[in-house]
């Protein structure tokens, strides 16, 4: 008598995957199961729920099982699928880049608000990674031009590719450089932005398994997490227009320290803004008496 073959429907495979992910310590087991299955079947999550009884074909099962094995090994979903949503855009991500976070969207949105009526500003993004910040800013500010800088050739290439996808490649220059090392000094930037490595080195071991899959040099901020802020601000005025502004993403508990470093660098109008979790997450700074300085003082924050 021939053994009956298991029929894996959408509902059945989701239920099994959810339990399997739970056993492996995956934080959002049902959501991740659904997102991966959506990618395999080219369906929305709503379509999964309206087609629970639909059986998977053998090739679909094979691809899905491969995704599930990678996720169970704590590889981030964004790396498995090769892309991540950010604002209304879709960004390619690779293991050369950090995965864009929702908190960084707030940084971009505030910068867009500060620059919407500024005309053809030049923007420098130090540590551009996937290009989520600089590419989104250029997409939202059609007169702006920008430079994305990253020490990783792979990350700079991804920034360039995402810029082309967003239709802003003609307004973006990418440079492989350790911060300012290869950035020309001839023409100053009106906006400097950075989401630098800011995790104190002593905290790295305690990060989630998924975060350990991301580039360590994009995470390690040195002993106190502030090394890159010091380096950026030390040489700031060789590259930033005296009337310009700086904006940083920061880590937990770093608001006061980064604000102090900004003031010591001559940026005396400083505001710290919180993220969705009511944690200090962004610092905006400019010289007093400038247009940017006045605008930054009006930001809700402290």
UniProtKB/TrEMBL annotation:
<feature type="binding site">
    <location>
        <begin position="127"/>
        <end position="131"/>
    </location>
    <ligand>
        <name>S-adenosyl-L-methionine</name>
    </ligand>
</feature>
<dbReference type="InterPro" id="IPR029063">
    <property type="entry name" value="SAM-dependent_MTases_sf"/>
</dbReference>
<dbReference type="Pfam" id="PF17827">
    <property type="entry name" value="PrmC_N"/>
</dbReference>
<dbReference type="InterPro" id="IPR019874">
    <property type="entry name" value="RF_methyltr_PrmC"/>
</dbReference>
<dbReference type="GO" id="GO:0003676">
    <property type="term" value="F:nucleic acid binding"/>
</dbReference>
<dbReference type="InterPro" id="IPR004556">
    <property type="entry name" value="HemK-like"/>
</dbReference>
<keyword id="KW-0949">S-adenosyl-L-methionine</keyword>
<dbReference type="GO" id="GO:0032259">
    <property type="term" value="P:methylation"/>
</dbReference>
<protein>
    <recommendedName>
        <fullName>Release factor glutamine methyltransferase</fullName>
        <ecNumber>2.1.1.297</ecNumber>
    </recommendedName>
</protein>
<dbReference type="InterPro" id="IPR040758">
    <property type="entry name" value="PrmC_N"/>
</dbReference>
<dbReference type="InterPro" id="IPR002052">
    <property type="entry name" value="DNA_methylase_N6_adenine_CS"/>
</dbReference>
<dbReference type="InterPro" id="IPR007848">
    <property type="entry name" value="Small_mtfrase_dom"/>
</dbReference>
<feature type="domain" description="Methyltransferase small">
    <location>
        <begin position="104"/>
        <end position="200"/>
    </location>
</feature>
<feature type="binding site">
    <location>
        <begin position="195"/>
        <end position="198"/>
    </location>
    <ligand>
        <name>substrate</name>
    </ligand>
</feature>
<comment type="function">
    <text>Methylates the class 1 translation termination release factors RF1/PrfA and RF2/PrfB on the glutamine residue of the universally conserved GGQ motif.</text>
</comment>
<keyword id="KW-0808">Transferase</keyword>
<feature type="binding site">
    <location>
        <position position="150"/>
    </location>
    <ligand>
        <name>S-adenosyl-L-methionine</name>
    </ligand>
</feature>
<feature type="domain" description="Release factor glutamine methyltransferase N-terminal">
    <location>
        <begin position="13"/>
        <end position="82"/>
    </location>
</feature>
<comment type="similarity">
    <text>Belongs to the protein N5-glutamine methyltransferase family. PrmC subfamily.</text>
</comment>
<feature type="binding site">
    <location>
        <position position="195"/>
    </location>
    <ligand>
        <name>S-adenosyl-L-methionine</name>
    </ligand>
</feature>
<dbReference type="Pfam" id="PF05175">
    <property type="entry name" value="MTS"/>
</dbReference>
<keyword id="KW-0489">Methyltransferase</keyword>
<dbReference type="InterPro" id="IPR050320">
    <property type="entry name" value="N5-glutamine_MTase"/>
</dbReference>
<dbReference type="GO" id="GO:0102559">
    <property type="term" value="F:peptide chain release factor N(5)-glutamine methyltransferase activity"/>
</dbReference>
């Amino acid at each position: 008598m021939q053994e009956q073959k298991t029929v894996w429907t959408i509902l059945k495979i989701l239920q099994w995957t959810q339990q399997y992910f739970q056993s492996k310590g995956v934080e959002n087991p049902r959501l991740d199961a659904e997102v991966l299955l959506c990618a395999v079947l080219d369906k929305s999550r709503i379509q999964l729920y309206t087609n629970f009884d639909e059986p998977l074909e053998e090739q679909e099962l094979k691809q899905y099982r491969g995704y599930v094995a990678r996720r169970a090994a704590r590889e981030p979903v964004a790396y498995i699928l090769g892309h991540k949503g950010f604002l209304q855009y879709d960004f390619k991500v690779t293991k050369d880049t950090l995965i864009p976070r929702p908190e960084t969207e707030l940084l971009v949105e505030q910068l867009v608000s500060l620059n919407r009526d500024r005309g053809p500003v030049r923007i420098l993004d130090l540590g551009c990674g996937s290009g989520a910040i600089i590419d989104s800013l250029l997409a939202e500010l059609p007169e702006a031009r920008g430079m994305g800088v990253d020490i990783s050739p792979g990350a700079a290439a991804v920034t360039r590719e995402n810029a082309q996808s967003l239709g802003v490649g003609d307004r973006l220059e990418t440079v492989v450089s350790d911060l300012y090392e290869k950035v020309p000094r001839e023409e100053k930037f009106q906006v400097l932005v950075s989401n630098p490595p800011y995790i104190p080195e002593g905290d790295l071991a305690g990060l989630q398994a998924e975060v350990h899959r991301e580039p360590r040099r994009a995470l390690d901020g040195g002993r106190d997490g502030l090394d890159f802020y010091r380096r950026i601000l030390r040489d700031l005025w060789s590259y930033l227009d005296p009337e310009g502004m700086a904006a940083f993403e920061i880590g937990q508990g770093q608001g006061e320290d980064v604000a102090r470093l900004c003031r010591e660098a001559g940026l005396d109008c400083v505001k710290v803004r919180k993220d969705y979790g009511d944690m200090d997450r962004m610092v905006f700074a400019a010289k007093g008496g400038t247009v940017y300085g006045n605008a930054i003082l009006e930001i809700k924050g402290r």
